[in-house]
From TrEMBL:
<dbReference type="GO" id="GO:0006310">
    <property type="term" value="P:DNA recombination"/>
</dbReference>
<keyword id="KW-0159">Chromosome partition</keyword>
<dbReference type="InterPro" id="IPR013762">
    <property type="entry name" value="Integrase-like_cat_sf"/>
</dbReference>
<keyword id="KW-0229">DNA integration</keyword>
<dbReference type="InterPro" id="IPR004107">
    <property type="entry name" value="Integrase_SAM-like_N"/>
</dbReference>
<keyword id="KW-0132">Cell division</keyword>
<feature type="domain" description="Core-binding (CB)">
    <location>
        <begin position="1"/>
        <end position="72"/>
    </location>
</feature>
<dbReference type="InterPro" id="IPR044068">
    <property type="entry name" value="CB"/>
</dbReference>
<dbReference type="GO" id="GO:0005737">
    <property type="term" value="C:cytoplasm"/>
</dbReference>
<dbReference type="InterPro" id="IPR010998">
    <property type="entry name" value="Integrase_recombinase_N"/>
</dbReference>
<dbReference type="InterPro" id="IPR023009">
    <property type="entry name" value="Tyrosine_recombinase_XerC/XerD"/>
</dbReference>
<dbReference type="GO" id="GO:0051301">
    <property type="term" value="P:cell division"/>
</dbReference>
<dbReference type="GO" id="GO:0003677">
    <property type="term" value="F:DNA binding"/>
</dbReference>
<keyword id="KW-0233">DNA recombination</keyword>
<keyword id="KW-0131">Cell cycle</keyword>
<dbReference type="InterPro" id="IPR002104">
    <property type="entry name" value="Integrase_catalytic"/>
</dbReference>
<dbReference type="GO" id="GO:0015074">
    <property type="term" value="P:DNA integration"/>
</dbReference>
Length: 287
């Protein structure tokens, strides 16, 4: 709470501590006061041999550093043993990104389904995917949207991001049209007493949860015919990459995505460079 962490971050920190406790118990350590740096290193090495990604190990190092700092400050540990832990540099693998045609194909498939079925869920699903791709917001931000967060005059949505940081994100006309169709033609069919002001609601009328929203996106992505399981983050990555390729500057994309660090946004410049290189190799006779 002190650091204004999201629920997901808190859950991850607790899971990390639980994992460490299980490991040190197996080593015969039953009191916090007995905890030493080599116990923590043993735990991290064990995770690594079990196939934990470097980025996952890095996150766990950050978790344990915070824990040992608190432990020393609270008197549970004689000193802050975690401050000597060095986090491995995370591997920056390039994210999966759709080309513009594939993104259009996924949305077209949803449009066709909405026309054929004329069901409340098909109009909702189309609006949901349009908003994700049209704005580049996170799935957690999407499910938190309320009816009043849409500003049609300015073509923007108000989003509550990580760490309860609010930001205004531009959104295109196709997404706004899809949202209005959902609100005006279908939302009333699913509304219940528990709907409140939630923009997107599930089949029982409650605010749609992340699991259901993710499954909507996974289904929509099947239209592309990829071997990979493509989800909400693929749409976010694609939106960012298409913005940069369309001429948007890095700072603007950072603001839209809600990244606290420009370095996080810079990975999309690498994605664009890779895509340009690939297109060149495929198209140029002297490549």
């Amino acid at each position: 709470a002190e650091r204004n962490l999201s629920e997901n971050s808190i859950r991850a920190y607790l899971a990390d501590l639980e994992s460490l406790l299980l490991h040190i118990n197996q080593l015969g350590v039953s009191e916090f006061a007995q905890l030493e740096l080599n116990h923590i290193r043993s735990w991290l090495a064990n995770l690594s041999t079990k196939g934990a990604a470097r980025s996952s190990i890095t996150r766990r190092v950050v978790s344990i550093r915070a824990f040992t700092y608190w432990g020393a400050r609270s008197g549970w540990l004689s000193r802050d043993i975690g401050k000597d832990l060095i986090a491995p540099k995370p591997e920056r693998s390039l994210p999966d990104v759709l080309d513009i045609e594939s993104a259009a194909l996924a949305i077209k498939a949803l449009e066709v389904r909405a026309q054929e079925e004329e069901s409340a869920s098909s109009l909702r699903d189309l609006a949901l995917v349009e908003v994700l791709y049209g704005s580049g917001i996170r799935i957690s931000e999407l499910v938190g949207l309320d009816l009043g967060d849409i500003d049609r005059q300015r073509s923007t949505i108000k989003v509550m991001g990580k760490g309860s940081k609010e930001r205004i994100v531009p959104i295109g006309q196709p997404a706004l049209t899809a949202v209005d169709n959902w609100i005006n033609k279908a939302r009333a069919e699913l509304v219940s007493q528990s709907s409140g002001s939630a923009l997107f609601i599930g089949s029982r009328g409650k605010r749609i949860d992340q699991r259901v929203a993710r499954s909507v996106v996974y289904q929509a992505m099947e239209a592309i015919g990829s071997d990979k399981k493509l989800g909400p983050h693929t749409l976010r990555h694609s939106a960012a990459t298409h913005l940069l390729e369309g001429g948007a500057d890095l700072r603007t994309v950072q603001e839209i995505l809600g990244h606290s660090s420009l370095a996080t946004t810079q990975i999309y410049t690498h994605v664009s460079q890779e895509r340009i290189k690939k297109a060149y190799e495929q198209a140029h006779p002297r490549a």
